[in-house]
Write a structure and sequence with these properties.
Blueprint (H helix, E strand, L loop, with lengths): L2 H13 L5 H6 L2 H14 L4 H22 L3 H21 L6 H24 L6 H28 L5
């Protein structure tokens, strides 16, 4: 961890001392601290990370208000952390936990349901649910399996937000 990120992390921890753990988890403060460290690592090569360093320094002044009170500061904090997470995902390849498992499960379940529905139109004499339910389940299982493998690779490479 670089000197800049250590200073910012210490400042954030000092500002948020005494805050309930449930509030810190809800507002993704631990994830934010990990992203601060990564911004410091990538700021040498990435112009956007250099811009995020300035935003993080500005956010340090209002983070206590953002976590403890609702309003403009919290809205700005939420937008800031979302932009930062999108940048880390797009430019540096970091993903949320179970990203592929959730997204591929949804996609394959949808594909399985549509294929089962289309198949059921060809066999109108048999109950339609017979053709819809099994492809839904198979799609869900395939999405879980493939997504789990991709998520395991991300975890092995330590690319989790």
């Amino acid at each position: 961890m670089g000197e800049w990120s250590q200073k910012i992390t210490a400042g954030i921890e000092q500002e948020l001392s005494g805050t309930k753990d449930s509030d810190l988890r809800f507002l993704r403060v631990a994830e934010y601290l990990r992203m601060v460290k990564r911004v410091d690592e990538f700021s040498k090569d990435c112009d956007q990370c250099q811009q995020f360093q300035k935003e993080i320094e500005q956010q340090l002044n209002t983070i206590s208000s953002a976590v403890n009170n609702t309003g403009k500061d919290r809205r700005n904090y939420d937008r800031h952390i979302d932009r930062l997470a999108r940048h880390m995902k797009k430019e540096h390849g970091f993903y949320p936990p179970f990203f592929y498992r959730y997204s591929l499960s949804f996609f394959y379940t949808l594909v399985g349901g549509v294929s089962g529905l289309l198949t059921s139109f060809f066999f109108s004499s048999i109950d339609r649910w017979f053709f819809i339910i099994p492809p839904l389940v198979v799609g869900l299982l395939v999405g879980q399996f493939i997504g789990g493998q991709k998520d395991a690779r991300i975890r092995a490479n330590k690319k989790i937000l």
